[in-house]
Amino acid sequence: MNNAHLIDHPLINHKLSIMRKKETPPPHFRALLREISMLMGYEVTRDLQLKPIEIETPVAKATASELDGRKMCIFSILRAGEGLSQGLLDLIPTAKVGHVGLYRDPNDLHAVEYYFKSPPHLDERFNLVVDPMLATGNSAITALDRIKRAGAKNITFLCLLAAPEGIKALNEAHPDVQIYTAAIDEKLNEKSYIVPGLGDAGDRIFGTL
Ligand code: URA
Questions:
Q1: Is-above-0.85 flag for pTM?
Q2: Whose CA is nearest to atom 5 of ligand 1?
Q3: Which CATH number covers residue 36?
Q4: Domain that holds residue 21
């Protein structure tokens, strides 16, 4: 079963095209990623549960609604996940933020954990794990393994670009996790970069090219 959802919206597609261009500089790239993450955040939070609350407007008493239960946890996969989490925090300032630090082993490209920090009560939260690029899926799979070990049950994965190989791998390893992406590109190249992609997302966000 394929749990990938393509968020296909003209504003996102337009902004993403600018991000893909190699001449787009880091400040512009970061700003666009922040804007896109807000637009995508609107879509991935569509099923959050509400509960009724009684309020008083300047005119009358009314029944309104607010988010039910514990708020979200945004899990940023370091370091490129930071580019997506900023816009999501603009949208949902009360969300807690967890971090998973992974690096790719240069020999076999498998993901190695070097940092993990999360808020408590993950089992009661909607956990949104973010990384702009779903390439081989190795980092995402390792991060999700770790976040589940820490107690998370309700998990969604959000990326900007996905390769078909990454979607397949993530689906196989974590069939309970829904994947949201703004584009599904053609393939991976021999260095596991997404083609056409946008290059190394971390380098483009932080100017470390
Ligand atoms: N990570 C990136 O930043 N870019 C890719 O194309 C693949 C993985």
A1: yes
A2: 193
A3: 3.40.50.2020
A4: 4-206
